[in-house]
Amino acid sequence: MAGTQGQKGGATIYSVAERAGVSIATVSRVLQGSDKVSAKTRQRVMTAVEELRYMPLGAARSLAVRHHEAHGLLLPELSGPYYSELLMGFESRAAELGQSVVLMLAEGKDDVGRAVRSLATRVDGIALLASAAIPDSVPETLAGSKPVVVIAGEAKPDVEAITTENAASAKALTAHVLAHGRRRLVFAGDPDSGPDIRDRYAGFVAAHEDLRLTAAAPVRTDLRESAGAELADRVLAGELTTDALVCANDELALAVMKRLRQGGRTVPDDLAVVGWDDVMTARYVEPGLTTVRQPVRELGALAAERLHARITSADIVDETQVLPTQLVLRASCGCTPDPLA
Amino acid sequence: MAGTQGQKGGATIYSVAERAGVSIATVSRVLQGSDKVSAKTRQRVMTAVEELRYMPLGAARSLAVRHHEAHGLLLPELSGPYYSELLMGFESRAAELGQSVVLMLAEGKDDVGRAVRSLATRVDGIALLASAAIPDSVPETLAGSKPVVVIAGEAKPDVEAITTENAASAKALTAHVLAHGRRRLVFAGDPDSGPDIRDRYAGFVAAHEDLRLTAAAPVRTDLRESAGAELADRVLAGELTTDALVCANDELALAVMKRLRQGGRTVPDDLAVVGWDDVMTARYVEPGLTTVRQPVRELGALAAERLHARITSADIVDETQVLPTQLVLRASCGCTPDPLA
DNA sequence: CTCGTCTTTGAAAGCGCTTACATCTAGTGC
DNA sequence: GCACTAGATGTAAGCGCTTTCAAAGACGAG
């Protein structure tokens, strides 16, 4: 008899039906919450389910309804609160929409393209964070077969994109540093590494232009802790002359500040340092780090929403959706420390 | 014809077979990497796959082989680096084992038990982090139907457990603080909140007993930032008299230190503060926080390994597996600051 | 050319669940 | 008691892929 001895060592819908004395259609109706079942029959089925410890095979249902009811999420890695916040927002909203989250991290994978194709066979769509660890070809290749939403990237044909605002807040941050009287500002980060950093540098330039000043060329660096220490060493060695470092993220800024302090330089007296992201440490260090806060959790939630919309309908949004960011002033730029911040 | 028009708007194995002029069995062999196919036929199939942008429906394969090839991971939440590290270790090792990761976060869910049962229909086993957000009944109920591995919890019949060492390192940490001459130590955390905190307090007590001292009753508090500020307020108000706070985690310790500084008290001169976890901020603050480092990434990897072993075989381990932890000495306990730490 | 052996390919059955439509049952009105 | 209707339940087909075993093809030896 089909299915009765199925699922090695486990019960199937057939064994539940037999035990409850009903058809498998009735068992299915009970488990799907259909109102077309009498209370008495429902009770008999649930009793059989509990006695047999029946655990449905989700794949069978997914095949029958032709949906996995799962969203894929591809991130470069998970170090730092940005990723955690994004993931929490995504998972929470996906759960509200009745979707599981299948997570894949790109770093450490020999063949990201292949891993992603494998992921795509198991989910209804994929959201991914634009980054150097994920080749540009990945979203485009995927979009031919599955709905795709790119986070912190740019929209393309068949690929929807969402991001947080970069240029305007970077302009406001830079203008704030300039208003403190600093004139030899340096932007640390690589505008060619992705649209986010590119737009932050654009804001940096725009703030200078408003004051008829010329912005310095960027000091290209990756955004890890070690790069921050190296950057500070260049300042300490006199290779880099600046009165304010506008760092493309907090991790870089915090490492710079720490190494400067070790080298006998004070922030903001000798030079100001500002960052981007408002990570937890930013408010614990002395002086507190001036930075920009991104609504990262909301970004994750929006990614789940947009992905779901693309999976369930032809609701196509062509333009990149942008969430606002917010300047957070602390003491590292030269502001008077707020004792309660 | 069955399957030819399947997968709404997408190709199926039947359309690939038709286009390549072979049977669906041959298409399946090619995609599964079987060596029972000639190179010429393989090429014809792959060409058809690319032309049709064929994306297999993973659920169909899972049903046929009766495995989802996915591990479930249930965490309370994702705030803080402990969770990120755990998740990175888990995902990385699961990927090496050919398994996807389906992530679920307990916080914010109205009915965790129901959410977990739904998760269990879609994965081959579940690893979960013991915490207050996840009812004790969850692993036991699940274990009747699916392999379960509990992280930072205790083994039970049918439930395997893995953890990091707590008591011995807590004892060493406390002994270190006592060796600095402190005698009015207070442990901040709730030993009833779970086996980890319970064991850390046990180590706190043991270190006192070695010196024929009586350990103070624990100050019960949750481990969030806000609780740390409240704890510091009690010290500042004179409600709590102590010369060293042994905090159950870094988040608490860091918030205490910040509020104490705001209140005009100095660490470690007025009182020492030590934590647990060695989060990034611990090495950025002034003074650096003395703490205990857990191999969290390895813990996540071990969870994935053990879960896989339970899914694929009857390889039953009855005892809780324990990974070692490591004391990290910085200046907050009273040690001389190491300029390079 | 025939036969034997090995390799490759195809036909058929099946994995466990969903659901449309047919059938059965219970209740009500005449 | 009979006819009708609404609600509940069952039968049968099918979702897309895997894999066993039979059949076909290719190759080499006599």
Automatic annotation (TrEMBL), chains A, B:
Residues 11-65 form the HTH lacI-type domain. The keyword Transcription regulation applies. SUPFAM superfamilies: lambda repressor-like DNA-binding domains, Periplasmic binding protein-like I. PROSITE patterns: HTH_LACI_2 (PS50932). Transmembrane segments: none annotated. SMART domains: HTH_LACI. GO terms for molecular function: DNA-binding transcription factor activity; transcription cis-regulatory region binding. InterPro entries: HTH_LacI, LacI/GalR-like_sensor, Lambda_DNA-bd_dom_sf, Peripla_BP_I. Keywords: DNA-binding, Transcription, Transcription regulation. This is LacI family DNA-binding transcriptional regulator. It comes from Knoellia koreensis.
